[in-house]
Amino acid sequence: MHRAAKHRITTTLLLCLWLVAVxxxxxxxxxxxxxxxxxxxxxxxSARLPTSVLPTVPGYAETERLSSPHATQAAAAxxxxxxxxxxxxxxxxxxxxxxxxxxxxxxxxxHLNSGFLHEGRIYAAHSxxxxxxxxSDIRVFDPQANTLEIHHVFPDPPGSLVWCLRHDGHWWCCxxxxxxxxxxxxxxxxxxxxxxxxxxxFFFPPAVIxxxxxxxxxxxxxxxxxxxxxxxxxxxLYRLRLPSDPExxxxxxxxxxxxxxxxxxxxxxxxxxxxxxxxxxxxxxxxTARPLTPPCCRSTPGSRRSLILQGSLPQSAxxxxxxxxx
Length: 326
Fold this sequence. Notes:
Layout: H1 3-31, H2 38-47, E1 56-57, E2 60-67, E3 74-77, E4 81-85, E5 90-94, E6 100-104, E7 111-118, E8 121-127, E9 136-142, E10 147-154, E11 160-167, E12 170-176, E13 186-190, E14 198-203, H3 206-211, E15 219-223, E16 226-230, E17 236-241, E18 252-258, E19 267-269, E20 275-280, E21 285-291, H4 304-310, H5 315-318
Parallel strand pairs: 1-18
Antiparallel strand pairs: 2-21, 3-4, 4-5, 5-6, 7-8, 8-9, 9-10, 11-12, 12-13, 13-14, 15-16, 16-17, 17-18, 19-20, 20-21
């Protein structure tokens, strides 16, 4: 073989060996890189979703769920039926079979927010959210007639109406604000059934406002003498009570509870003692839940447990004497 040809072959072999030596580590490094599992990535993403920064105690556990495309704003229930509430529609389901029985809407319905069962009818908060200036009214759904009609229009609402409740003979309405203005979210007690005579108003505690994540209290229900308010998208409930000072206007946070509802409107479930009903909006489902603490054992305003949660129990009462311990 010609000497020049041998030289070219030798050079080529040396070049190939050099390329193998340089590229092999890169190939190994690429092979050793973690493999992306789509399902695992979705789970990891869900785990990274923001959640409440407040200390949370076990509150409610899911008992049942029913898929519903209308479960986007709230839910309500009676002994025989479940109701899913969307922006424009109230859907009625048979409680036992899960069968869709009827849907109801009305012209001009834009943004239903919640539903409160009172004397056999559902009082639904309604607004023009996210439009401004705020327009708010209460619409009543009659399950017997399957109709949705305007019950009361607030001529100059102090926010976007998100829920209305009946408690101790009075109506309580929550008007929400959002973003940098959500500290203006206000709970108003009206002294008569016409929603025209304001009795008093309360604002939410700063810790709760900060935890709203720029949103507001999407749902609420009285639980004895305390108020449970839901988040817009966190699976928590804030247990609140009226201020002990009659001159104060800020609700007091008793505790933050876990729940199976990632936000939105909630209501009492008469089928379960102390039970609640709400929705899982991402899953489009109606969800019922039971309290993890029996109603007889829950804290009440001023109780020792509430004082401990508030951090206001006198130091002398924090630890019982040995003789007093069970």
